[in-house]
Sequence to fold (523 residues):
Amino acid sequence: MPIRQGPISRRRFLTTAAATGAMTSLGGIAMPYLSRAADRPQVTHGVQAGDVSLDSGVVWARADRPAQLMVEVATTESFKDARALPPINALPESDFTAKMLIENLPSDQTIFYRARFRDLSHIDIVGEPVVGRFRTAPGSRRDVSFVWGGDVAGQGWGINPDDGGMSIFSAMRKHNPDLFIHSGDTIYADGVIPAEVKLPDGKIWKNITIPEKAKVAETLAEYRAAHKYNLLDDNLRAFNAEVPIFVQWDDHEVTNNWSLSKQLPATYKERDITLLAARAARAFHEMYPMRESIVEPGRVYRTINYGPHLDVFMLDERSYRGPNGDNLQTTYGPDAYFIGADQLAWLKRELLASRATWKVIASDMPIGIVVYDDATNSKGSEAIAQGDGPARGRELEIADLLRFIKTAGIRNTVWLTADVHYAAAHYYNPDKAQFQDFDPFWEFVSGPLHAGTFGPNPMDNTFGPEIKFIKAPGADKQNLPPSAGMQFFGHCKIEGATGQLTVTLRDRADTALWSVTLDPRMG
Fold:
């Protein structure tokens, strides 16, 4: 469902805070502390906020025991006139995670929140608070900036303190973005994290390790542990406390290239891919501050409105796809599904209803890059592209969507993606395409944020992509470690006065590699 709330003023927020101030003595700073620090419930993995809109956002934290999450919110860092919210439970059934939708917030306001836990067995025992912040969406046409990327802790490249940990999150945080679009592969559930990896130059990459990452994830506890592993990184926790996340998933949250046709390798004792996907989905939803759908519990795709200049359409290109195969169908049906008929209809409705200047389609996989299901033998299709020629297979879905966007007069769509572990900018030109019934548009690729660097992959001419920029290691240098410097993120800035969108591709040293400024089309 779209998130479309009306604005609330800071004055009304503070009035509400004063009206609920009596709650602070029960759930806020006046709560009695015990001197036995070891007895207090702890916030174990930092705090996160996400899916922030005009007057609301979701806050997440995890406890070390059965507890109640207590949250206070304020419009000042001093927490003067803070509003205490009713506590919610963090139980073993959710691995002691809890997330709270905070509503009735003023628009275009930095919101400070303070999260802590009180013991369910002894409610007078209260833990130390952890503070985070986020900025609500603007009601006016102010500047908006955001970052995006995907692929974290893949190919055995985990948290290496000697290399500064996952330092790319520190580079992104310096831009003080309004939000972060995580394009998927938030974890690598199918990959182990060894204690050491020998590099080609003879040096040793040393990982922080946990027992659960010594094997592929199969149990619910192992999937949860993969997410918690990433949160051991100081850079990531500091980033999460300041930048709200808009998250989607891809394949590695379950296992590499999973679909209903997935044949699991011998490393898996559990052979049921649907059971693995169900466990992975539960862990994914527990571990991120996502808004949850009432209509379809567990749904990932959703619209998030972030002011007059920006709507974000978060796609799910895993849950509804047909089996991976040759992807050569000439008619559209379940075997050719990528996002599926229902999600496609939703996306059309939401794009048509959008009044934002820019419609950002957050796709966990690229359109025109060929991604093989069997990369070793260059066989089968894992993504949308199936090779040069007319639209076939999953491309039929994209062709239908692009034709609809053109016919309906929908302007200023931009596709953001990751997945392929290199950085690129593609301009889709109907004059160069096999299927030509669409308006030109851009697709920007970033990542990996912290995983092996690969590529480049072959391109498919069906929709006429022109490569305007690419940075990849080349065929002779694959699976480069983060220390090689080829980790990438994207940064977008929308200028409030003109609506111009500037997209910059950057590396982990925050070097600007390439940039383009796009003028919005009006009318």
